């Protein structure tokens, strides 16, 4: 029930380019990640872990349904495109998907296992260049969601006025590097013999 990653990224790029003014655009991407995969592998073994992750993928596909486009990004991570939802609905969908995965008992070797899941939601309207930039931001937001309550977080950019001077400078440098704003300037060094100096 899940799509291939390439198909999903094409749909995300279509959604990004669907409006001339991204700032007024609804919709976004969810990054859903299953935590503690190393601990699951240690407890059950690699083959059993693959069965658990496959069952989780089927459960996620059923929870997403046909309304949204979802695809696996990694063995333990999935991306969902929800092009029609506003911010509140994105968080609601993320919470619903997380609850479906967290509350399910995955049976392996007659041992019930619950998963730990985090979700990062990122709206399209913040002006992303392409699907990769949007998904990467959703992934970072997902990592931040692990430390917060509820396990679901909505991305919000830091306002320039709220940034520390160091963070503002680092952002300016990153933007300059990305936009070829730096050039190589050097002063040639010439060896000078002291005897020749008058």
Beta-strand percentage range: 15-25%
Derived structural class: alpha+beta
Mean pLDDT metric: 83
The global form is globular
Number of helices: 6
Summarize the amount of helix as a percent range.
40-55%
What low-confidence regions span 5 or more consecutive residues with pLDDT below 50? none
Cα-based radius of gyration, to the nearest Å:
23 Å
- Distance between the amino and carboxyl termini: 84 Å
Strand order of the largest sheet: 2-3-1-6-7
Secondary-structure element series:
HEHHEEHEEEHEH
Written overview of the protein:
- With about 200 residues, the protein is of the alpha+beta class.
- Helices cover about 40% and strands about 20% of the residues.
- Strands 2-3-1-6-7 form a five-stranded mixed β-sheet, sandwiched between helices.
- The mean pLDDT is about 85.
Brief write-up:
With 198 residues, the protein is of the alpha+beta class. Helix content is 42%, strand content 18%.
Task: Present the secondary structure layout.
Layout: H1 5-16, E1 28-34, H2 37-44, H3 46-64, E2 69-74, E3 77-82, H4 87-102, E4 106-108, E5 111-113, E6 117-123, H5 131-145, E7 152-154, H6 165-178
Parallel strand pairs: 6-7
Antiparallel strand pairs: 1-3, 1-6, 2-3, 4-5
Helix pairs in contact: 2-3, 3-4
């Amino acid at each position: 029930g899940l799509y291939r990653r390439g198909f999903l990224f094409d749909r995300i790029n279509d959604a990004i380019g669907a409006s001339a003014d991204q700032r007024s655009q609804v919709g976004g991407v969810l990054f859903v990640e299953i935590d503690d995969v190393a601990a699951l592998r240690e407890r059950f073994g690699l083959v059993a872990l693959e069965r658990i992750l496959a069952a989780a993928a089927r459960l996620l596909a059923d929870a997403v349904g046909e309304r949204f486009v979802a695809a696996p990004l990694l063995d333990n991570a999935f991306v969902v495109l929800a092009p029609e939802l506003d911010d509140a609905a994105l968080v609601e969908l993320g919470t619903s998907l997380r609850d479906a995965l967290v509350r399910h008992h995955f049976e392996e070797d007659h041992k019930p296992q619950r998963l730990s899941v985090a979700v990062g939601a990122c709206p399209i309207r913040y002006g992303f260049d392409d699907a990769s930039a949007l998904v990467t931001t959703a992934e970072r937001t997902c990592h931040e969601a692990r430390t917060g309550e509820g396990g679901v977080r909505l991305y919000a950019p830091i306002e320039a006025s709220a940034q520390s001077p160091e963070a503002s400078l680092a952002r300016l440098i990153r933007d300059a590097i990305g936009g070829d704003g730096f050039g190589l300037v050097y002063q040639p060094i010439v060896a000078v013999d002291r005897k020749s100096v008058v």
